[in-house]
Specification:
- It is a single chain.
- This protein is of the alpha/beta class and about 250 residues long.
- The protein has 10 helices and 9 strands.
- Strand 5, helix 4 and strand 6 form a beta-alpha-beta unit.
- The longest helix is centred in the last third of the chain and has 19 residues.
- Bound molecules: S-adenosylmethionine (SAM).
- The site of S-adenosylmethionine (SAM) has 19 residues, from strand 5.
Length: about 250
């Protein structure tokens, strides 16, 4: 997969993706991530990319030209692959694990980062296929959002994580939050690891984890329970811990 991030701050992207799992995935050629500087496509001698908004109001707006010409150069460099073009914006669809699963199947993704008050609407309508938000708050620019999206996609690519299970049992995979984890020592400052986890009894461990996952979700994100398919046993357990919305 190739991910190209259109930005005014390529170093923010390059720095962040060079570490940890994303850095290893790039080194192993499991993903290509490149940051392209929109400013390089300005036709202005001062490399200006922003201007005052028509109609007045506070702040500056990114001009459509440099964004369009930058995108055209990206298309010229890989003319034969279909591209999903995501614009990072608080107006977008809230990013979810299911969307990361969907985008992880794409061959090429382009992520457009806005800055200032945003980007001239005409070029958004022209090149963007998906508007994406990382939450109901406003960031100063799209770079951090692009990194969040990129990280959540890259970890799903084949062989990027050590074992398949690493992401198959995580929060949101089955619509629930994950169960709690414990490691050595078995007793830490007087607190013991739940006994069942030390028992080696796989069926009981599985049952304990399912129930722990259900209870966590009920306590922390009860909204998620409304969208999950629950078994009779799940429902009984949830009722036993006080969840009545069944
Ligand atoms: N004027 C815009 C508004 O009120 O909707 C906010 C612009 S914001 C200051 C600048 C840029 O940050 C946006 O163009 C977008 O790329 C990015 N951004 C801000 N909040 C975001 C969010 N919640 N999710 C994704 N991108 C965001």
């Amino acid at each position: 997969m190739r991910i190209t991030i259109m930005t005014l701050f390529p170093q923010m992207i390059e720095q962040a993706v060079s570490h940890s799992i994303m850095g290893r995935a790039i080194e192993a050629s499991q993903v290509e991530i490149r940051a392209v500087n929109i400013r390089d496509y300005s036709n202005n001698k001062h490399k200006q990319v922003d201007d005052y908004p028509y109609g007045g109001g506070a702040g500056m707006l990114m001009k459509p030209g440099p964004v369009k010409w930058c995108y055209e150069a990206i298309c010229e460099s890989s003319p034969n692959t279909k591209k999903r073009v995501m614009y990072m914006t608080p107006h977008g669809k809230p990013w979810k694990q299911a969307m990361a699963d969907e985008f992880a199947k794409e061959e090429e993704i382009v992520i457009l980062c806005g800055h200032y008050e945003g980007i001239d609407q005409r070029v958004i309508e022209d090149i963007v296929t998906d508007e994406v938000s990382i939450g109901d708050f406003v960031l100063t620019g799209g770079e951090l959002a692009a990194l969040v999206i990129t990280d959540s996609i890259v970890r799903l690519l084949p062989n990027v994580l050590g074992k398949q299970e690493s992401f198959q049992e995580e929060s949101f995979c089955d619509g629930l939050l994950e169960y709690y984890h414990y490691t050595r020592p078995a007793v830490f400052e007087g607190k013991e690891v739940p006994e069942v986890l030390l028992s080696g009894h796989h069926k009981n461990i599985e049952k304990y984890r399912r129930q722990n996952s259900l209870e966590n979700t009920y306590k922390k994100r009860p909204d998620l329970l409304e969208q999950v398919q629950l078994s009779v046993e799940d429902r009984k357990f949830l009722q036993s811990v006080g969840y009545n919305n069944i």
